[in-house]
Amino acid sequence: MSPFELAEPGTLSQAIGLLGEEGVRPLSGGTALMLMMKAGVFRPTCLVSLRKIGLGKVASAADGGLTIGAMATLGALERSAAAKQAFPVLMRTLRTLSNVRVRNVATVGGALAHADPHMDLPPLLSALGASVTIAGPHGERSAPVESLYAGYLENTLKRNELITRLDIPALGKRRAAYLKCTTRSADDWPALGMAVVLDGEEARVFMSAATDRPTRLLSAEKILKGRLGDEKALKQAGEAAAEEVQIESDMHGSASYKKQLIRVYLARTVHEARNAVH
User: What is the CATH number of the domain that holds 207?
Assistant: First the structure.
């Protein structure tokens, strides 16, 4: 690992003020960042630790949704009473997201900013219509979760911007499910992640791992509209989804294998969502 300086600002504005220069990067949980540094694929000259700036609160929103500080750990989110009550689908997803040790260190904001397409939360959060608040030197802006991603390990944040909060709108009468297929243990990186949120007779569908970013399956959504209980429509939607996007081969599976997973898991996830408890 190459030598680096460590800065520990006490406020958000101080942290933002330290960012922007080449080689300077924020440090939240560090679970992915440290691995990249140890492997020599990332060599920052300075890390700006965010651990003293707060932003770790998980709370219910006035509309019944959830507000999550960017520095909240995945473990804290998993244990949150507010999250358990409002979003059972989030709890089920977190239980197979890596392992307990990682979840107790990795942060929500860091996990989103890392932009690894194999992460489990981005497709689910995108399907739920979640948004992030992003702070920079000129103030704050809000953006849909799916807009954070530009490609493999590439986000759309500017160097001097930080995610400060994640907001998930109330589930209401919607039903949601996330399923993933792993080639090894249940908590491994997925070969495919599929998220479905049903609102009446309409479906909002996102997939990940088979693509270089969370990807919405618009052709499948169009076919499924008003036909969620039609097995023929589910098969047609799976075929359309498999052909709609550019599939990425990797160590978790070939493109042809992942296309077949899309065909199978789209139908499975729709069934799972239809049977989900509010």
Answer: 3.30.390.50
- Residue 22 burial class via C-beta count within 10 angstroms: exposed 0-12, middle 13-18, buried 19 and up: exposed
pLDDT band with cut points at 50, 70 and 90 for residue 41: confident
Tokens 């908590």 found at: 187
Handedness of CA 74, 78, 82, 86 (dihedral sign): positive
Same domain, 91 and 164: yes
DSSP string, 201-250: TEEEEEEESSSSS-EE-HHHHHHHTT-TT-HHHHHHHHHHHHHHSPPPPB
Give the pLDDT score at 2.
83
**Domains: count for the chain:** 3
Instruction: State the pLDDT at residue 257.
Output: 96
**Amino acid identity for residue 109 in this structure:** G
Domain that holds residue 12: 5-49
| Mean pLDDT (whole number) for 4-17 | 96
Domain boundary among 168, 198, 214: 168
CATH number for position 17: 3.30.43.10
Structure tokens at 250: 């990797």
Show the tokens assigned to 71: 């520095």
Angle at 210 between CA 155 and CA 220, to 5 degrees: 100
